[in-house]
Amino acid sequence: MNLQIKRLTECTIQEIITAWNKGFEGYFVQLEMTPEMFFNRLVNEGLSLPHSIVAFDDMVPVGIVLNGFRVIDGKKTAWNGGTGIATEYRGKGVSTLLMEEILKIYEEEGYEVATLEAIKENERAIRLYARFGYEVTDSLVYVAGTLEGKNNSRLQTEFIRPEQLPTYSFYKQNIPWQCQWQSVKAGEAQIYFDGEQNPVGYSLFKRVWNQEGKLEKVFLFQVEMLGEVTDETFQAVFAAITEQQTHPVSFMTVNASQSNPVIQYLFEQGFKKTTEQVQMVKTL
Q1: I need a surface site. Which of 33, 126, 127, 233 has the fewest CB within 10 A?
Q2: Is residue 185's pLDDT more than 90?
């Protein structure tokens, strides 16, 4: 092998897409992308072309790492938004070379924390990240099912823009990257209040309507409640998100912490787990 590393800014679009699609061939979930899908993801998730890299064997792209950078809880934080290695190059040291290079980039940029998520079954990747000092800090789940907009609660709801969430003192910044408000700018958010106008929680989500204008699906990025919460409160939250639609609506959580009480509630409503990931963090 004659390996070299290039930044994405030094690569053609075709080289980048080839590196990504070859890198995730046969992966646990379908991640193949068109150029349009890929660059939409770069923009939506705040990924950095100059700080993301592609590995080449001579002129052939054989591996890729995408990186994003944000300040979270006052710390400069880097996120590995995907590490892929072409099938025939796995187990040959390419992933080690890529990890060494991105950690060098993080150090040069003065970042304090590095984060990533890995599919729980991807034991080889988890071992690789652990070897470079990443530690598992949380178990994250995608769960899916349907709910109806029943509501017998007096919970009051205020719609806000996702960009407004960080102005509330109870907003949690340190959550998985794709669930942070910066990654869900095209979404919607709600704040919930009790009868005395005390905040009791908030949510961040995206809604999808069908061609008849009927709410069809909701992607949940955050549902965070303050203090103790009852099933009745969760019913009111989901009724507010659906605006009390009477027909069943499909819901899917995105990288929700398995310890979040909303997950237990959804399991009790018959939801099923579709994917499980681990969140890993390294202090730089």
Answers
A1: 127
A2: no
